[in-house]
Amino acid sequence: MKLILRILLFLLITDFSIGFYMLSIEHPKGNTVVGIGVLVFAFLFIPLFLYHGFKGKKLKDYTLDKDKINQIFDNLNS
Fold it and tell me: What is the pLDDT of residue 75?
């Protein structure tokens, strides 16, 4: 999974570089290339990155509930 993320990140950086270069020379497809890069980043890279980052972890450890709030205030008052 890590290799897939690295390859995808490299491809996205390349896509953005080419797209912004195309915009600088006023090529008509520059906006399309950048737009495709944004869509791939938002709908493919970010979900894969989050899945890889949270795989095997309990999300309850990262949520804030009443017990944790009470524990924080008890530690502050001690």
Answer: 86
Per-residue burial over 2-22, b = 16 or more CB atoms within 10 Å of its CB, e = otherwise: eeeeeebeeebeebeeebeeb
pLDDT tens digits along 36-74: 999 999 999 999 999 998 888 888 888 888 988 898 888
What separation in angstroms does the CA of 1 have from each of 31, 46, 49, 59? 30, 13, 9, 20
Cα–Cα distance for residue pair 2/25, rounded to 1 Å: 35
pLDDT value of position 61:
80
C-alpha 73/C-alpha 78 separation (Å) is 9
Judged by DSSP in three states, 57 sits in coil
How far apart CA 10 and CA 3 sit, in angstroms, is 11
Q: In 3-state terms, what secondary structure has residue 28?
A: coil
